[in-house]
Amino acid sequence: MSKTYQNIKGTFDILPEASTSDGTNVAGSASWQFVEAAIRDVMALYNVEEIRTPIFEETELIARGVGQLTDIVSKEMFAFERGDTNYVLRPEITAPVMRAYLQHHLDQRGGVQKLFYVGPCFRAERPQKGRYRQFHQFGCEVIGTDDARADVEVIAMMLAVYEKLHISRTELRINTLGDAPSRAKHKEALKTYFESYRNDLTETSRKRLDTNPLRILDTKEESERTLLVDAPRLIDFIDDESRRDFDEVKSLLADLGISYREDHFLVRGLDYYTRTAFELESPDLGAQSALAGGGRYDLLAQELGSKHPVPAVGFAAGMERLFLALQAHGVPFPEAQGIDVFMVALGDEAVRWTFNQSQQLRRDGFRVGLDLKGRSMKAQMREANRQRAPFAVIVGNDELGSGVAQLKDMVTGAQSEIAVSNLSDTIRTLKAAEASVD
Ligand code: AMP
Q: Ligand 1 pocket, 124 CB below 6 A?
């Protein structure tokens, strides 16, 4: 028996219709198009342009851009080698966008660059609900300004996507990470604090104590979480300018009527993150509750080789989690657009005529279905129904000779004779009549 193949665990085929794979509901391609169109519409309102970068990059770029000590880089990269170069399937898209910005000197276009993306990302994580090995992110990077309004615009456009899709149960949490020196001071204080509890820490946290004590704050261990209560808080180390900036962000959010919760435990493990950090959560997602996250990363460009600082702020959101939230909200998707007409043919001559005529109708802008298998009339009518054709044009050899065809209304079943000479006009009239009823 020959082997049959399956998609790789933690990845999905997006089929024309919704499907289930490994117990996960996967939206159909029409739903993906619908959501992507909503994202594009929102981005257009905020005057954000699209950028598309390759799905693989040099490993070094991602290691620098995402951080050598993160789980993503240390454990979850899909990496491969070719010649002397190490490559990695991108685990996120911010570092690639910044690479492209610097490489192509996009600053020379003038002003602030506002770029959005939608595309696949790859992380070798243990697959579970809301956590996959190939998933899709959409996001936006606003590059070239450190104005608090940019932070708030990024948050506003992120929220606008969920609002447009009627996902209302979300919670925005925000924090400020301050500047690099204030974070260094906080890190030292954390080290000293956790050092005194070294024996109470798990092995993972002990390792983190030496490499990156901030990550201990992410612990899920109940025994360790109690230690967090009295741990030094970053907010107590924040520099005055960052404080003023954070106040400005909060007051602008209030102006726009955006509600948020301040969360001083919301941190990022990487040194190039500065000031604003935020996360959007949904109570409907279970353990993987983050819909999206983001913040300011003023020091990333220099990490990637820029001689000058390039202030930037952005968000990244998971598409699959957005679909989970949509499902939980019971938001219906519009059905895929059906065809305008199905051409049914009986007899060799009619089959040939219908084939040519279909091409003409498509040139005239109509969506046309027809049989490509030489099936019976009954089977062709079934196919017309499956494709949700509102009308079928039925042509036989004899009818063709007399210049007429049968037009069947697939909803009412009513049948009438039409001339074959001006099919486009007939279908145009029918479509117009249908549109006026809708
Ligand atoms: P991150 O780059 O880890 O901040 O991720 C940004 C967003 O991408 C998260 O808020 C999730 O919505 C989504 N995401 C991250 N990792 C995964 C994954 N493995 N599977 C599905 N979605 C993910």
A: no
